[in-house]
Design goal:
alpha+beta, 4-stranded antiparallel β-sheet, 10 helices, rod-shaped
Length: 554
């Protein structure tokens, strides 16, 4: 009877070591499989039985094949995937924006200097047709540079939308894969099995989704996990996955998440990972750049126009804008003589500023100067429509609504201005307004033309005046815009490298804890092989002993 027990023990050793060799072989085969976790065979001693007062073991029991897993490290990999995905997504668009902004001879700063430099050259020879032609040419180049920057940023935004749209189908497949793996894991565990391969595969997909969306995970029981966006929007619940749908609104790709008839709208705050990074650039960084560039262009145009309108061309005409004007509000009533008004003393209210009109400033020019000396947020100028002179108000900030009240100066401002609210027009409508070199207003006095260079010098000096936000020249303002791009690009480079280094460290830590080590597996293989051979030799010995006993009976 005891030999039968020994035979059973030996056979269990043979079979168990065989399984251990098989598990080791599977580990070796998957040494380079992404996301694979080292597997081990869980074994325990066989239950001992009482044989005439002696407790004899019954060999070894092979219980289950487990995978090595560290929950903390796996969670850190998912969290770091969010950071890495966000910073890597920003890298290429930021590099393109930095290229668009540029430095050197072809930069916007160079074009600004060139335009105002042309006015300086004109001041040296106010009547020169070549110098006048250069002023017009440089003005056109300046506007073209603004347009090229604007077009380049539009292209970057379009590329971002295309990149987001290209990910939608792949994300849906990944979400569905997680749901399917959840169902498979649940089924296997209900039968008492450990779904090692499914668990590894799900971890890989979840990590990919973390880099794309910054998904957050939570356990839901029976081996299943749920996924949601950082903003709390659910993506996977058990074996059910939501679906991403992309649609365009306002020129930008928007994402909604559908589950049957339920549709959830999202914005950039709902996302992490690549989607958050790209949406931050598209919805925040690029629009702020565009606004800053529009404000700079608006500042150049309105200030140059105001000064140009104060000068005189070769024919003695004044009040002509150099650039076509951004949208503005203009006095309904025109005045043949802007210096001889009969307006009552009163007050003008523009935004939060109150401007007093009295005998000292009740000419059209006096009203203009009083407004420009205030903090009303507009630039006032006197323009000539070919017949009469009008007061014109242009917002300093492109796109700004400006509330004004000229009720004490009745019929002064056109009532068809949307209740005294007005808005600056799109800067793409701006162009050089002078039709010929004779219309360039270089003179400061009508009797001074063509040798008068007062207005040409005044326009040239605008370039050194701090007219942007009260503390920046035009070139300074562009330098600040370009510096913003450079700073963000450098920040992204450092953050991306830091995130990549951290991810590498976590991956190495994971490999050291749950990955396959060929050296260790070769040691295990030798160990299990020797165990198999020893168990086989033991079985052979027991068989020979049983044969001897049978021979004695004969």
């Amino acid at each position: 009877m005891s030999l039968n027990i020994a035979l059973h023990a030996g056979l269990s050793g043979v079979l168990t070591h065989q399984k251990q060799v098989e598990v080791t072989g599977n580990n070796i085969a998957n040494v380079n499989t992404p996301g694979y976790s080292r597997q081990t065979l869980s074994v325990s001693p066989g239950k001992a039985i009482d044989m005439n007062g002696l407790l004899l073991g019954q060999g070894v029991d092979a219980e289950t094949v487990n995978r090595e897993y560290d929950k903390f490290v796996s969670g850190q990999l998912v969290e770091q995937g969010d950071v890495l995905g966000r910073e890597e997504a920003k890298s290429s668009p930021l590099a393109e924006i930095e290229r668009i902004m540029g430095i050197g001879e072809d930069s916007l700063a160079s074009e600004i200097e060139g335009f105002f430099g042309a006015w300086h050259d004109l001041s040296a020879n106010p009547g020169g047709s070549v110098e006048r032609d250069q002023v017009i040419y440089k003005g056109e180049n300046l506007l073209d540079s603004f347009s090229q920057l604007e077009s380049g940023l539009v292209d970057v935004r379009r590329n971002i939308n295309d990149s987001l749209n290209a990910e939608v189908n792949g994300i849906n497949l990944k979400l569905q894969k997680v749901a399917e793996l959840n169902a498979s894991i649940k089924d296997k565990q209900s039968l008492g099995h450990v779904a090692n391969t499914d668990l590894d595969e799900r971890d890989v997909v979840v990590k990919e989704l973390s880099e794309l969306l910054g998904v957050q995970t939570f356990e839901t029981g029976q081996g299943q996990v749920g996924l949601q966006l950082p903003g709390g929007v659910p993506l996977v619940q058990g074996n059910r996955a939501m679906g991403f749908e992309g649609y365009y609104e306002g020129g930008n790709l928007q994402i909604q998440i559908r589950s049957g008839d339920v549709v959830l709208e999202t914005d950039r705050t709902n996302f992490g990972g690549k989607f958050r990074g790209l949406m931050e650039l598209r919805d925040q960084f690029i629009p702020e750049l565009e606004q800053d560039l529009d404000d700079l262009r608006h500042g150049i145009v309105t200030n140059v126009n105001a000064q140009h309108e104060a000068g005189y061309d070769l024919d003695g005409n004044t009040g002509r804008s150099f650039f076509t004007r951004p949208a503005s509000v203009q006095s309904e009533t025109g005045f043949a003589d802007p210096a001889a008004l009969t307006l009552d003393t009163g007050e003008i209210e523009i935004n939060d500023s109150t401007i007093t009109i009295d005998a000292q400033n009740n000419s059209l020019y006096g009203i203009r100067d009083a407004i420009n000396d205030s903090d009303a947020g507009v630039i006032a100028s006197v323009v000539h429509d070919g017949t009469d002179y009008h007061l014109d108000l242009t917002p300093k900030t492109r796109g700004a609504d400006v509330e004004s009240d000229f009720s004490q100066l009745s019929d002064f401002i056109d009532e068809d201005t949307d209740g005294n609210f007005f808005d600056a027009a799109g800067s793409e409508q701006i162009s050089v307004a002078v039709d010929s070199t004779d219309q360039v207003a270089a003179a400061g006095f009508p009797e001074g033309a063509p040798g008068d260079n007062v207005n040409a010098m005044a326009i040239h000096e605008l370039n050194s005046s701090k007219l942007i936000n009260g503390d920046q020249t035009f070139v300074d303002a562009y330098g600040r815009i370009a510096a913003t791009v450079g700073t963000e690009t450098r920040r992204n480079t450092m953050a991306r490298q830091g995130a990549a280094d951290t991810m590498d460290q976590l991956e190495n830590l994971r490999e050291s804890m749950v990955g396959v080590s060929l050296e260790q597996e070769m040691i295990n293989l030798t160990l299990f092989q020797r165990g198999f051979e020893a168990s086989s030799r033991f079985v052979q010995t027991i068989d020979e002993m049983m044969g001897t006993l049978i021979g004695l009976k004969r």
